[in-house]
Structures are given as structure tokens and as C-alpha cells.
What we know:
Chain A is of the alpha+beta class.
Amino acid sequence: MVRQKKSVDKFSSLSLFQTLQPPNNILENIKEAIFIADLDGKLLSWNKNAEKLFGYTFEEVRGKKITLIYPLNLNTTLKKDLAEISDNGSLDSLWIGRRKDGRPLSINIVTSPLKDNEGRTVAFIALSHDISDNQRLEETQTFLENASRILASSLDYQTTLETVAKLAVPGIADWCAVDLLEQGKANRVAIAHIRASKIRLAKQIEKEYPMDLKSEAGLGKVLGSGKPEFYPLITDEMLSGVARDKRHLYLLRKVGFISVIMVPLFSQKKTIGAISLVNAESQRRFTEEDLETAQQLAIRASMAIENSKLYKTVEDERERLNNLLAKVPGVVWESWMETGKSSHRVNFVSQYVETMLGYTTKEWLQAPDFWLTVVHPEDREKAVVESEELFRSGKGGVVRFRWIAKNGKIIWVEAQTSVIKDNEGKPIGTRGVTLDISERMELERRKDEFISTASHELKTPMTTIKGFTQILANLFKENPVAGVYLLKMNDQIDRLRKLVDDLLDVSKIQSSKLILNKEKFSVGELIKEICQDLQYTTATHKLKIEIRNDLLITADRYRLAQVLINILSNAIKYSPQADVVLIKGRVQGDSYIISIKDFGIGIARKNLTRIFEPFYQAETTIRRSFAGLGLGLHISKEIIEMHQGQIWVESEKGRYSIFYISLPIKSK
Amino acid sequence: MTKQKKILVCDDDEAILEVIKIMLEESGFAVKGINSGKQIVKKIQEYLPDLILLDIWMPGIDGKEILTILKRDKVLKKIPVVVISALSDTKKIAKEKGAEGFLNKPFEMTELIKITEKFTNG
Lengths: 668, 122
């Protein structure tokens, strides 16, 4: 009960009172319901609209207390209320009134005292009208809002639809039912009415006379056509038309249909069900507004069902994918840059992480960089730096580090990473697979150990043989023949030694273990030194040097010397008919270029890049005279490229070859 | 006449010990060879060489450990050590551990003599 006090001028005119006695034309013409009561609250006057509103004729209410139509609140008495109105003037309030048929009414009522010339209250006059319609509008809005909220609260649309149907009665309709089409059959998902007995009745009808989808009327029609059906007034004739037999008609009559709305539910343009609203006991006929409400409800319900189905599809796909990924023997993962930050967040990791490390996917995703926290502390910095580099360059690549499993076991892994880019090619994330390379590492370690041991073992007797050869040479220095032979022996040992060194280098290169020891030195001086040393070894060729510019470069002097010696030796070796080798050194732009030209057998065009491959040998016919393992140029190329330089050759078969080495002047 | 310089050579390979001995004795050095790192400290303390030639890769004994021990001892660290090794990678480690020189195996006789003379002329 809501009471609002309004301050209004005191009303006082007895003559007006007299003119208000029925039958009275003025009162009849006013839209509002008007009635007059005496000081005890007994009804004295009552207009046509009051009759309409409350269902009683004046004769039926004359002399009766207004509590007949205004059930009072517990907190007050009629006397008190009337006394208040008498003292304070007009009262404007909202009431739940009561009709003759017992139905509640929402009404707005303005009550004023009627006073005589002396200012004494002699009666009360009230104007009132039905605000049920306004109230209904508000109720409808609230209902739709609540329905939306309930439908969105859960993906279990069976339950939410049930809840919404219950919510709709009795405010929106006396009955609310929701039916869904599942595998060609209609399934009643919800049925609501405030009285349980009525629900039992409905269920009985459903059981004895199940819905006929091919029916020309009712729910069957809606489900088939996908169009709403609106029956503002149900007649007995209509019921007879629909009833399949006498009993059916009897049951339908029992329901007491007055007015019916049925609206279809849609999912992806297909009709998947319907919502039915029925009015019976309330006697109220549905209007176009009610049809609109029903359609609004149907839209929301349809959306909820569709969302739920889509979500399920997505979930199913996701599970399928996860199951598939769990079978990959590596941790599949994805990580994105956090918006507005420079950090990354891992947003997906496959089930395999549990197999490999013992951490669940949940644990793994709990922190954005959890993966890093389980990297071996010694490898952490390297892992971060290398990952960042891969990401920023946009090229992706491979990072190796150790992970510590939940049980403490240390595992070497290799993260094969690719970079995710946006439409403009900017890196925004990474994804990849991280594999357990423990076995591979172990194999590599054993290989390295073997190579080192083999190298050591080979060189030990080599040292002895060389040593004794030189001691003998010293001992027999008076004997020229012995001297020559011993010199040849020494040369062969040197050759052998070079082969072993090359093998060791190649093995290191293949394991990425070749390390450069860089220092600053004069490149011109190095060239001169090497040429000087080599000149001693050849009587047939003259090494002509032309250093146009000299500068200090930062590089591994020993390895660069190795490259120059290799190429110069080749130049001499592969030009047995010539007598000169030209060496030039000059600056070009931001590089230093060394060129070595020989006038020998040359290289066929198709082999110009192949010669730098490991184990490549020149044509077999000449092979035997140019023995070797074919590793020198491969190693040279690796060394130069490790310096961020380039090595290439220009050649004309049978005439000349020029080897070029380019080194960046500014080292990185 | 200057006192004869004493060289101590430590290498697990007997043949190499022999080669070095012959080469250095020919050049006027006194040479003592030991084929194991065990007891090396004691032997050095007894012999008091002017130069130690040390093979860093010996089975069972860690040559690097020996080098560290020698360079930690107040008296012994004064004796120059030249590491001889078949593996050129050990050059860096040898330097880090305090070796004064490095010789690659196999070596030229002239190289050996040059380096020995260099470190015994101080």
C-alpha cells in the first residue's frame, strides 16, 4: 500500500455534494470511477464507471462500507484513514482494490473530504481509475528484463526456460508453456501455472492427446509454419474444431481457454520450438501488446538456446583438438603479447605438459610466464634473450634450455618457435612446440666426447712420429738423402694432422660448437704473414700481394688465417701449370674484400656454389692428384659466415679462379 | 757457465716423454719425465725445475686440477708452466688457470726449443 500526501486547498461546498447525488449526469460522463461515502465509510453514491471498474451495481453497494472494494492494511482502521483525510485534505494513493469476482485491481485513487459551510466534513468523495494497463506495461518490462537475465545466467537452457515460464505466470499470462522440437518430435520443456492442479490437468491432456505436428491449428501449426498464432478470443466452437473426441473436448473446456498466443523459437533460421501463453481464469483477453511481449520473449529465448548450442559446438571442437594435441609428443603452446604491455602471456598449452613435466595445464596457465619459472636458473637469461630475439625479428627459430620437472628431473628441451603477426606484419605473439631432446643431447655429448678423444688419440702417436722424424733429421743432417726422406715424412705427418683438425672442425660446426676468439688486428699484416709462410712451401708459384687499404678488424685471427691458408693452398694446388697467385686486399663500402686469383683449372659454372659443400671434391679424373677430404672450403665458409661475412668464387674453366672473402668492417 | 736449466715434463704417453727428453737434452737442458700426475707436487718440490711442461689431458687425473694446485701454492706458483695439449680448445682454459704458455701437439722441434728457452731465460 502506497500513500502519498498532497497538500491541496480544503474543499468545502455542500451544494456540490448535493449535485453529486445519483442519478447524476455529471458523474456519469466523467471517465473516472467516482463514489461518495459518509463519515463511517458507507457508500452513498456510485457512478457507471465505478460499476464497470468494480463489477457491482449501485444497488449492490448502497450503504455498504468501502472496505468491500478496498481491503484495508493491517496497520490502520477505516476511521483513522478517514480522520486523516478529513484533517489533511486530499489524499492521492495507489491501491489494490477488489472486484466483485474477487480479482485484484491496481487503481489510483484520489480522496477528498466534502465539507459544509462551517467547515465540517460531511462526506468523502473519491476519484479512481484502473492503472492495471500502466502497471502491466511496467510489469512486462520488468519481466522481459528478468527473463533476459535468467536466460543469460546459464547455458542450461532447459532449466532457464522453466524458470522463465514460472516467472511469466500469473503476471503475463495464466499459463506459460515452452515446447522444443528435438529430432522431429515436440518436447514439452516447461509448463507453468500458479496452481499445481492445473499443471496436472495439462500433463494429463498431453499424455492422452499428444501434440500432432501436422495439425492445421495450434502448436502444431506454429512449429510447422514458423509463424506466430494469435487467438484473442477462444470460442467453444474453436475448441470443438480442435478436440479429437468428446473426452478431449471436456478436458479442453476444463482448462478454461479465453485467449491464446503462440510464438515460434528460432535457431539459425529454423523453427526449433514455441512459447505458448494462455489466459483462462483471469478472463483477460490478450492484446497486440501482449503478442509483442511474447515475441520479445521468444527472441531472447531463441538467442539463449542458440548461444548454448554454439558454445557446446565450440567446446566439443576444443576438446577434440585438445585430445589430438595431447598425442603430439611435445608441448604445443601459444603465447600473446599483453595489450598495452611489453610482456607475453601464455594462453594455451597442450596436455602433454603434464606427461613431460608433471604440471597440469591449469598450473601452467596460472601465471603469464610460468614456463620461465621452471627453466633451469643457469639457462634462464639465455632463454629469455633468445626468445625475445626470435620474436622481435619476426623470423622465429629454435631455443634450447633445460626445464625442471615437478619431480625435480632436469630435461633438455628445444622450443621450435614461429612468430604470429598482425595484418601489418608486426609480431604479436608466438606459438610452437617444445620437444624433449634429452636423448639427442646425450647422443651429441657422446659424439663430442668421442671426437675429442679420437682427436687426442690420433694426435698422440702423430706427435711421437713427428718428434722422432725431426730427431732423426737432426741426427742425419750430414746425410742429404736421409734428410730429404725425413723431410717428406714430416710433410706427410703435417698433412695427416691437418686432416684430423679438419674433421674435428667439421664436427664442431655440425654441433654448433665452433667458437670464435675475436681480437683486433691488422688484416693487411695477416695477409702478408700468411703469404710469407706459404711462400716458403712453394717453389713453383710466386705469391703477389697488393694491399690497397689496410685496417684493423675485429675477428678470430687464428681462424681467418686458417681460411686464407686453405684458399691459398688450393690456389697453388689447382694451378700446377701456372706460376703466380695474386692476392689483393681493399675496402669497399662497409666491407673489407680479400681476393685470391689463380690461373689454374678453374671451376665449372654448375659447381660454383657446390664447392663450398662439405666433402665436395673436384672432378674424379683429377681427384687422385688433388687428394684431401674436401672439407677445407666448407670450413672456410662457415668461419667467414660466423663473422657475418661472405665468401664466393668467380671462375672460367681452364683459365682462372678468383676467390672473394668479404668481411664487415664494423663487427657486431 | 750458467747453471743447467731443469725441465720437468708430465705426460701419460711414454713415447712423447722420450721424444721431448731427447729434443731438450740435445739443446742442453736437464730433463726429468713423469708419466702421471700423482705425486707431481711432491716430485716438483724435490726436483725444483725451472720449467714444467704439463699435459692437461691425462686419463684418470685432471690436469686442470694439478695446474690449479700448482698455481695456488705460494712457492710452486713461481715455476712457469707450459701446457702441452692435442686439443687447441684447452688453450683458453690453460690460460685461465694460470699457465704461462701453451704448446700444441704435434709440435715442431724448433717450437719446443723456442718456448723452453723463452721461459727459462728469466
